[in-house]
């Protein structure tokens, strides 16, 4: 959908077909990211904040801001409605729902996509379906979360101006867990229990974590407006790419998720812009670019350290929050880090712990 959006906004004249497995779109997820207030994706946001906070379950808390950045929240229905509106107004972009793909073949210069009752042929195909289960299961860690938008009594949210990015950070027998709270008003919030674990956590287990969080905070929901649950693979193994394959991989299967954080929205938008420019220029679409070698190395090392030392993870995130510098950390988390930024992040972490894992 992001690629379709970019092609439409560039007045691409070729025919585009979006094959969607689901029958209809609903508000099934949300995305967050840091960006400048005038960023083109800011128009999709339902809310944004200038401040964010980190805190240990028992210990220090730190509140931060960066002069030219805000933290944006995009519920998926706003994104879907925006792109569906563009598609409806387009003469050459078609959306086909309830399309389950059975086979993809390449014949000379044509890709044939076979669905249950219809065959599509195209010059180029971009495949954003999720990676196969066996590849996902080989990930280093899993980011699991359960979240709800709660309608609360007036004044329940003490500081609606500040996101709780990672608070109540602690570790238990199931891994590292923290609270994530986006205050949408003083009586409404998205609250999420989030875990980094060496195995996927079920929805029932994550819902119990969320129930405990709501009870611990003495929140008294008047209504649950929305709920979401997901398991994100962190450190997903690289795909095996066949140069003669009929399709270009994109999305999670192609590395859209940042391995060490799970952030994906801006990475997908950057890919969609670059890919659309290729297509409009008469070239074949391209997959996501590989992350820089130093970033790949740092992410993999950090994930291995977290997996082997879950009891140290709260300390690691708190040290980065307090010692790396927020401008540096925001650039690092947003894939805009310089070499100097990456070195600052390394210096903020306990050297001995990481050296042991390197050795």
List the helices and strands and how they pair.
Layout: H1 2-9, E1 16-19, E2 30-35, E3 47-49, E4 51-56, E5 61-64, E6 70-75, H2 76-89, E7 93-96, E8 101-107, E9 110-115, E10 119-122, E11 126-127, H3 133-136, E12 141-151, E13 162-172, E14 175-185, E15 188-197, H4 203-216, E16 223-234, E17 248-249, H5 265-280, H6 293-308, H7 313-323, H8 326-333, H9 339-348, H10 351-358
Parallel strand pairs: 1-7, 4-13, 11-17
Antiparallel strand pairs: 2-6, 3-6, 4-5, 8-9, 9-10, 12-15, 12-16, 13-14, 14-15
Helix pairs in contact: 1-5, 6-10, 7-9, 8-9
Description:
The protein is an alpha+beta fold and 359 residues long. It has 3 domains: 154 residues, FAD/NAD(P)-binding domain (3-Layer(bba) Sandwich); 94 residues, Alpha-Beta Plaits (2-Layer Sandwich); 66 residues, no CATH class. It is 30% helix and 30% strand. It is built from 10 helices and 17 strands. The strands form 5 sheets. It has a 7-stranded mixed β-sheet with strand order 5-4-13-14-15-12-16. A 3-stranded antiparallel β-sheet has the order 2-6-3. A hairpin with a 2-residue loop joins β13 and β14. α1 packs across α5 and α6 crosses α10. It is globular and about 60 Å long.
């Amino acid at each position: 959908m992001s690629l379709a959006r970019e092609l439409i906004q560039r007045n691409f004249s070729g025919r585009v077909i979006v094959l969607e497995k689901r029958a209809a779109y609903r508000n099934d997820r949300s995305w967050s990211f840091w960006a400048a207030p005038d960023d083109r994706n800011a128009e999709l946001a339902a809310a944004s904040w200038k401040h964010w906070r980190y805190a240990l379950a028992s210990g220090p808390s730190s509140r931060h801001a960066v002069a030219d950045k805000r933290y944006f929240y995009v519920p998926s229905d706003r994104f879907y409605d925006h792109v569906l509106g563009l598609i409806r107004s387009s003469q050459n972009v078609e959306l086909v729902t309830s399309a389950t793909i059975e086979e993809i073949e390449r014949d000379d210069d044509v890709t044939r996509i076979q669905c249950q009752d219809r065959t599509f042929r195209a010059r180029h195909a971009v495949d954003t379906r999720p990676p196969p289960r066996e590849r996902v299961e080989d990930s280093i860690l899993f980011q699991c979360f359960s979240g709800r938008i709660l309608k609360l009594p007036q004044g329940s949210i003490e500081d609606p101006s500040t996101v709780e990015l990672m608070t109540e950070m602690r570790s238990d027998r199931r891994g590292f867990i923290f609270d994530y709270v986006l205050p949408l008003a003083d009586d409404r919030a998205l609250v999420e229990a989030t875990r980094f674990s060496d195995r996927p956590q079920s929805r029932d287990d994550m819902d119990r974590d969320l129930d405990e969080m709501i009870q611990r905070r003495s929140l008294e929901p008047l209504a649950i407006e929305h709920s979401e649950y997901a398991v994100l693979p962190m450190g997903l193994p690289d795909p095996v790419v066949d140069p003669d394959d009929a399709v270009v991989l994109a999305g999670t299967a192609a590395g859209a998720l940042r391995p060490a954080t799970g952030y994906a929205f801006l990475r997908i938008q950057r890919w969609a812009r670059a890919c659309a420019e290729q297509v409009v220029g008469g070239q074949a679409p391209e997959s996501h670019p590989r992350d820089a070698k130093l970033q790949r190395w740092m992410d993999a090392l950090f994930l291995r350290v977290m997996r082997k030392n879950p009891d140290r993870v709260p300390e690691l995130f708190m040290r980065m929050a307090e010692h790396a510098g927020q401008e540096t950390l925001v650039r690092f988390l947003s894939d805009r880090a310089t070499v100097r930024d990456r070195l600052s992040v390394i210096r903020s972490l306990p050297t001995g712990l990481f050296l042991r894992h390197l050795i």
